[in-house]
Amino acid sequence: MTIPKDAQAIVAALNKKHGDGAVVTASDLVVPERFTSGSLGLDIILGGGWPTNQWVEILGKESQGKTAIILKTIAANQARDPNFTVVWIAAEHYDTDQAAALGVDNSRVIVVPTQEMEVAFETLLEFAESKTVDMGVLDSYPALIPSEEAQKSMEDSVVAVGARLTGKFFRKAGGATRRVEGERPFLGVVINQWRDQIGGFSPHGTPQTSPGGNAKNYAYYVRLDVKRDEFIDELRPGKGKQRVGQVIKLTTRKNKSAAPGQMTSVRFFFRDAPRTGFRRGEYDLVEELVTYGTLYDKIIRRGAYYTIGERRWGPGKDQLLEDLRHDVELQQQLRSEILEAASRPDHEIFGAEDAG
Predict the structure, then answer these.
(1) Which of 112, 170, 270, 277 has a 20 to 30 A CA-CA distance from 326?
(2) Which of 77-91, 206-220, 247-261 has the lowest mean pLDDT?
């Protein structure tokens, strides 16, 4: 069924008044690209990667891995695209050494050091509207201070100024990230922190909230909860254990393009682990491949044995992990097959062999 002629006339009049593309049919809307997170598991729970032309929030307590997740995202996309450029609003700081260790090309990161909330928001909007960068990051929201608050003395009370400015920012942010076919996609990221909600109630422990008011929670396309699950220790003969990394647990608290409430975890190394071969800043991507390959039947597990096509490993998965780490072609094949399987809404994972 076609759109009635009277409605088409209204569409034509509105486009003439406001510019071509102001009103379109849903079938003509741009399907946004997705940026990889650098982690297979995170890409899967996000619905294929970070949705572009949207704003997302990364939440967590201090030192849980929030900034690392975003730096790894930047590194993965810079590796894919030599023109991938980022503007980073450094309300706290930007650690060039840490970024480089995680694989980021710092020459393609524009850093804006400021704690002024208005400046931070205006800069993000300007870069998003300019279509000159691929990603904008604010690290982090709690470090920003509105000018009205900055001008007052320590004993003066200032209520909800930041929340009002944040609400205003997101009312403008939608237009700044709007794109038509062929235009450079953009991903906006805001890093935030959990706070105990004083006076609130929760049947599941201490209730939590995040700074910035409630308006932002409606504006974000994705809200990702980041939490350290456990530390990774490596045995050093004659010297005891050395703490080399952490397992980061990731949960989508909100996701408007895929199922919310999905969880995954990634093994992240914050220093060299020579006995296992990992370098500072790396993910254990092969462990993810085995976990999700088994889950989506790309790796068949029967008891203690694993099979990919005609090849078989076991007992145990140690040899499989070792062989996969040295077979980049097989890694790429498995990743593509797993993402394709995960993207099919009719794929039934509960019938898979035990992925334990």
Answers:
(1) 270
(2) 206-220
